[in-house]
Amino acid sequence: MLKYRFENFGGIVASEDPPFLAFVDRDYMRELGCGESPLWANADTSIGRLSAPTEVHFAVTNTCSAGCAHCYMDGGRPDEGELDTAALKRALDVLADLKVFHVAMGGGELFERPDWLEIAEYARSVGLVPNLTTSGRGFTPEIAQKLKIFGQVNVSVDGVGAYAEVFRGQGMFVIADRALDILIQAGVSTGINCVIGRRNFEGIPQLFEYARTKRLKEIEFLRFKPSGRGKTTYFKECTTYEQNRTLAPLLARLSAQYQITAKIDCSFVPMLCYHKPPVDTLEAIATYGCEAGNVLLGIRSNGRVSGCSFLECSGGSVFDLPQILGEEGAFQTLTTWTERAPEPCRSCAYLNICKGGCHGVAEFLTGDPDQPDPDCPFVVEYQRDKELQIVQRSQILLRTIEPVS
Question: CDD domains from the xrefs (predicted)?
Answer without folding.
Answer: Radical_SAM
